[in-house]
């Protein structure tokens, strides 16, 4: 039975994933929990849905050439086995109500870390901008470690295949182009979530109806988002994600209605300010580029100059 509200949520989450490479589990899993789905079932169903959804966005980026295949290889070597065994770690944490509470707590902490990472990401992107034209040097061991960390977190919470791992990649590779960062993360997430999904099929609490509802909305959503990812306004996407993730984290961690409302108002106010200043800065940069193109000297062919 398809749940229309879950399908609409899947459409929204799919567009966000396609645009930014992040927000899949970080958005979909808490939405399912708020809809009354048990936390472990939400994690299992979302990961299985991601196994189908991720290749759609990854395929678009592969076709566009915005994927660093060496990074994908080293990430996979760490994330695929750790995601599978992360599910075993999840089962070892407890059973019944205790397990659901542990998953909910772990999810809340993971969302808080991701929101914080999104907040500091602009600072990371501004580092070493002068080296942007230099070829990217892949660092195998640190990249492998990122895969191990991300895979384990995904197996336990379903969060991390996009949100957390993109932040870690940006820390390690601050010069990585945004479009290549999104494409690389989406492609490496395919084997990662497949490994986690197989484990959740075997040991988790997978619900077919929930997964089917997510896919009905998320598959077209991620395709649309990926098609427009190169033109995604970062100054709009980032603050929106931070507000949603931070609010979800506080709710999962047990924040009361008053602290939650205050946090949402403060974060939304910051988000509006960030979006307005970001749009103004982008407009100024476009104007400066237009002035430079108009002022560029026009070359005259030698034959015309002699004549």
Can you walk me through this structure?
This protein has 307 residues and is mainly alpha-helical. The protein has one domain (4-234). Helix content is 80%, strand content 0%. The protein has twelve helices and no strands. Helix 1 (4-20) packs parallel to helix 9, helix 4 (69-92) packs parallel to helix 8 and helix 10 (234-252) runs antiparallel to helix 11 (257-295). The longest helix has 39 residues, at 257-295. The model has no long low-confidence stretch (mean pLDDT 77).
* Unreliable stretches: none
Q: Count structural domains.
A: 1
* Structural shape: globular
Beta-strand content bin: under 5%
Oligomer state of the chains in this structure: single chain
Secondary structure tally, helices = 12
The H/E string reads HHHHHHHHHHHH
Q: How would you characterize the largest beta sheet?
A: none
Derived from helix and strand composition plus strand pairing, the structural class reads: mainly alpha
Helix % is: over 70%
The whole-angstrom Rg is: 21 Å
**Tally of DSSP β-strands:** 0
Mean pLDDT: 77
End-to-end Cα distance: 79 Å
Provide the descriptors you would attach to this structure in a database record.
single chain; mainly alpha; 80% helix; 307 residues; 0% strand; globular
Summarize the structure.
With 307 residues, this protein is mainly α. The chain has helices at 4-20, 24-34, 39-64, 69-92, 96-125, 140-157, 163-172, 178-203, 208-227, 234-252, 257-295, 302-306.
